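thoughts on my protein:
***
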Amino acid sequence: MDINVKHINLTNDNNNITKGIATICIDDCFNIEGVTVKRSKEDKLYVQLPQRSYYDKETQEKKYKDACYPTNKETREQISQVVLDSYYEKLEEKEKAKEENENQKKTKKSVKSKAKDDLQEQEEEEAI
């Protein structure tokens, strides 16, 4: 079975238990939207398939049930592995982009400060 992630969006809030939301495609013919990467209480990441809410008839308590689910453990593990791999790749891309952005800011600052130093030197030479 071929499972791949079509896209994944990361959340920006570090305090949020949801770390990312993905759309996966199975065998290039079936998409599942709303696959989430979450952080557990033990600070481990896990993958949760889409759920729907309902109210228990006896207790009137709001509960959740999987909207779709694999029929065996191996498929669930494969989905989890593919989604987590994609999550880590996206996280790495985000870190690289952040580093590049910081480097560009440093370069712009150094160019500005160099231009400022050159201007001061010209003013000093004109004053002499």
About this structure: Residues 3-127 form a domain with the Arylsulfatase, C-terminal domain fold (CATH 3.30.1120.40). The beta strands are 3-10, 18-26, 30-39, 45-48, 51-55, 62-66. The chain has a mean pLDDT of 88. The chain is about 45% helix and 30% strand.
